[in-house]
């Protein structure tokens, strides 16, 4: 059997594929963070908690209301997005003029409260969510056995990422949004409702986290701590990609997923740190991140 | 004026010091200090292990105190306090120090998390009180770090690994380990490897994953590629749960079998039988063993709304055993109570003929269990078939191998 760097090519391809799956989650979460940071200048520490909330809402929908996976995929992001809007209107909007630190502290506190609330009710071991009937089973790719659900994760997240990028970079709405970030006063003077745009942006970012949560529910245990395990890595992804860069966070998300996956084969002990090593190197060479613009 | 102030300051400093000296002198005068026996439950109330111990352990200890007072009507008062150690050794040892110094706590229990337990053991020995540990896994508590003030009650990594022996003998003779990359994981893997090799099996390899790894698929692919018959999970809590979940998704369980080395009923409940059926592992307690265990566990369920883990059942038993020893000794002075603890056999719903050895190890039977198929389960929480009872003297490391200085060879 042929080998790459001393491991069989089959195993290598398999790990590449799995890296892509994880990268899809990184991409989706860091995309939400990037959108919120780019448009609102808020470092949203509650993003992991929103992701967890998405997964829990999917589970609760199934458990208490009998709402299946597919409707949940649509409904849950709406609910999480709405929750985000309430948070933005009631708390965050007063912080835009202040230092970044205040937004960070507020959202961090919010994350702790959400996690505490769910831990208190459901405990830390979490709840099981089964893979929907249509997507159970696996494809035999020749080099590996790829569960259908994981393939679906890649497709769904790439779709969502592309749609977000398209909306922000290529549509009229996106142009208004970007203008509002660049110069809010002038944009407002053109008769565009900037606070409304900002509110919707935060809601959208939260909805993205909720969507990622529903996608993740069948593959990892739905537990109150699932967000905090992931969020630090996702922040590193955003920093590497360049704070606020949409395309940057998508590409770095996928790329780092793959790098992390390969590290798990060559030197598994380092798989939790490799992302941060890359972050340190990137910050030394390009302080604004790979895709960020120097200001 | 200045001098007066200085004198006052010195006096102010001396008063508390004198009162502490007085407080320390007092216990020797009366047999039960303050007429009260005080028990502290130190556990993880909100973190990763809070379902294993946590509020459930507090509930169990509270039940034990209430039951004891109702049944034995002791002449002393029994009180209970509890605290969250947040899985931090420094937080745990500071709390316990405060309990011993200012609140007159005589015994601490639960103390899950080996890191915290080792730190608490040191403070307990220094202050001459008692720790009956019902939660931690490390065998160090009864070996290198054994102490005349420590009892290790429910299980340890050595006992957990003995299940691996039985599985190896039953034909699962090639192993691959998925190990949490910290002290607990590596020592569990080492103990299990020894057990596998002692039974004539072979360890084909291992992969270490970081603590709280969110995704296990890469590691499982490596376990799959090893072609080992058994994949041993040397991890705990959320890591075990996510590893089992991914193993199912990737079809690993079709050709290989999974053995959790620290899997408990909490994990099985969290995952459901459909995902975990057929898994084997070692448990120190199961609620559905016999009438005694069922009766107690149903009472516990009434209060806690979940069936007990072995840690929670063990905490009840530990508190009861301790109170019996205090009553027998007629004092709460640590060395006298410890003498009684090591003399009296333990017979309750948790342990039959349990004995506390010189090194502090409580020796009792362990159970090799297999998770039922969903169709076999007759009621909620009816999860296990008992495959074998591992007698206490086989489950625990023999005293001749002990590295504890208290054991005279």
List the helices and strands and how they pair.
The complex is a heterodimer of chains A (295) and B (409).
Chain A: E1 3-4, E2 7-8, H1 9-40, H2 47-65, H3 69-90, H4 100-122, E3 138-140, E4 145-147, H5 148-170, H6 172-182, H7 184-189, H8 194-216, H9 226-241, H10 246-266, H11 274-285
Antiparallel strand pairs in A: 1-2, 3-4
Chain B: H1 2-25, E1 36-43, H2 54-72, E2 77-84, H3 89-102, E3 107-110, H4 114-126, E4 130-133, E5 150-152, H5 157-169, E6 174-180, H6 183-198, E7 202-209, H7 217-225, E8 230-234, H8 237-249, H9 252-255, E9 257-260, H10 265-271, H11 273-276, E10 280-283, H12 291-304, H13 310-329, H14 334-343, E11 355-356, E12 362-363, E13 366-371, E14 384-390, H15 392-395
Parallel strand pairs in B: 1-2, 1-3, 3-4, 4-5, 6-7, 6-8, 8-9
Antiparallel strand pairs in B: 10-13, 11-12, 13-14
Helix pairs in contact in B: 2-13, 3-4, 5-6, 8-10, 13-14
Mean pLDDT of chain A: 89
Give the topology string of chain B: H per helix, E per strand: HEHEHEHEEHEHEHEHHEHHEHHHEEEEH
Mean pLDDT reading of chain B: 90
- Enter the CATH topology name of the largest domain in chain B: Rossmann fold
Major β-sheet of chain A, in short?
2 strands, antiparallel
Largest pleated sheet of chain B: 5 strands, parallel
Number of helices of chain B: 15
CATH superfamily of the largest domain in chain B: Response regulator
Number of strands of chain B: 14
Content of β-strand of chain B:
15-25%
State the helicity of chain B in percent bands.
Answer: 40-55%
In the CATH scheme, the class of the largest domain in chain B would be: Alpha Beta
CATH topology of chain A: ABC transporter involved in vitamin B12 uptake, BtuC
Assign an overall shape of chain A.
globular
Measure the end-to-end span of chain B.
67 Å
Distance between the termini of chain A: 51 Å
As laid out across the biggest beta sheet of chain B, the strand order is 2-1-3-4-5
User: Helix coverage percent of residues of chain A?
Assistant: over 70%
Q: Could you state the oligomeric state of the chains shown?
A: heterodimer
Beta percentage of chain A is under 5%
